[in-house]
Amino acid sequence: MRGLWTTARVRAAEERVMAAVPPGALMRRAAFGVAVVAAELLAGRRRVGLLVGAGNNGGDALWAGYHLRKRGVTVTAVLLEPSRAHAEGLAAFRRAGGRVVDRLGPVDLVVDGIVGLSARGPLRPDAAAHVAGLDAPVLAVDLPSGVDPDTGHVAGPAVRAHTTVTFGCLKPVHALADCGDVRLVDIGLADALPGPDLLELDPADVGAAWPVPGPDSDKYTQGVTGVAAGSSTYPGAAVLATGASLLSTSGLVRYAGPAAEAVRAHWPEAICTGSITDAGRVQAWVVGPGLGTGLGSEQVLRTVLEAGVPVCADADAITMLANNPDLWDARDPDTPLVLTPHDREYERLAGPVGEDRVAAARRAADKFGAVVLLKGHATVIASPDGRTLVNRAGNSWAATAGSGDVLSGVLGSLLAAGLDPALAAACATRVHTLAAALAADGAPIPASALLHALPDAIRTTRTP
Ligand SMILES: NC(=O)C1=CN([C@@H]2O[C@H](COP(=O)(O)OP(=O)(O)OC[C@H]3O[C@@H](n4cnc5c(N)ncnc54)[C@H](O)[C@@H]3O)[C@@H](O)[C@H]2O)[C@@H](O)CC1
Ligand SMILES: [K+]
What we know:
Helix content: 25-40%
CATH topology of the largest domain: UDP-N-acetylmuramoyl-L-alanine:D-glutamate ligase
Number of helices: 17
CATH superfamily of the largest domain: Ribokinase
Binding site for AMP: 375-379, 404
Cofactor: Mg(2+); K(+)
Distance between the termini: 15 Å
Bound molecules: ligand NAX, potassium ion
Structural class: alpha/beta
Keywords: ATP-binding, Isomerase, Lyase, Metal-binding, Multifunctional enzyme, NAD, NADP, Nucleotide-binding, Potassium
Binding site for K(+): 57, 112, 145
EC number: 4.2.1.136, 5.1.99.6
């Protein structure tokens, strides 16, 4: 499990550590780390260009330039605000033979020291002009300039990093935005940091949490998942969600709804009934994909919410909760509920997502007393108990019709197996991402291919 810390906490920790070490020591450690990674990326090539902003981020770049000069690398620097460039860093850079230029000529690697933790908004026009002309790979110092450190939001021109070297700890930007390959350099902050603001699961965490049958397990003890999804118009959503539940855990899956025939034809092992009232007992419900939003669907949602078991409410279930807030009354507030909106569904439910997706997910989690899984390239999972998890997809293969139905099926089966709902949401998201990458292997895929890659994805997380 990896922790991520917001800039306010990082700064507080840096201040505590700085008070106890010689002046400039943290910057030296940081810059040395940048130089080591730069040398690795250069792989014997010899020309580096620095883009240097007005603060300590630029200072890191200048000191890294100093270290690279000591290794015989040719280093040039553009100072975006010459009068505010880090004075000691600039002096050391010049002493070591670094040259200040107006524009970067041909180089093998660019070091982005334009702006770091103090970044506000997109790149300013002069910085943007320097960045626009680059054709060498960019090594970002702390974070790609132009990307918000705490939200990962990109409001305009920004650096696109091949690699990012960050210091002391990861920040939200490293999970919420594209920072390329992220390297962490230890500058001695660990003991000064409080608990993390965000968490990101490693595949091994997912593997450790994933429910697998033991010697005493049978089909009931592993949790029975109920799927209330699909319609005569959209039987596919039912087929995908039920299939995902079946492939995620080895218990039992019951399907209830008008797509029973289609589900039975695809998944003979599912127990299918035409009506929610005949479904039998389950340990968790998945409700919503392809269900429709008419009166009959509302009654299905009500029945599921009244059942007193954990519920994953997706797609049309979210729209119904937004359209008809009376439906919330059907829910026992002590029973876990996971809502899995994409941005438009979120907006129907809780207003605009805005630039800060973490804050949005937390707002809705508080408001509804539910785990909120806000889907996106970086999915944010907020629990009403304050925990927030993120999962960066790293690819977009899962952006395909029916992919959400698969996610809710996986999540429902983990809830039925008794996983903590926020952990279930994070594990399901991670495996969904892995399955998409495995199935795609470089080419577009339909959701059914993602579905059939679930066992391989789960296996990946369980392999040490
Ligand atoms: N505080 C510390 O102990 C350490 C800080 N370090 C470095 O210091 C950085 C933070 O430095 P600072 O707080 O001096 O500030 P930055 O270097 O992040 O920003 C400097 C200035 O850039 C300008 N700026 C803000 N947004 C901009 C934008 N969108 N486009 C262009 N310019 C913009 C502002 O005038 C701002 O004051 C970290 O990211 C890290 O690289 C490291 O040296 C490690 C130790
Ligand atoms: K930067």
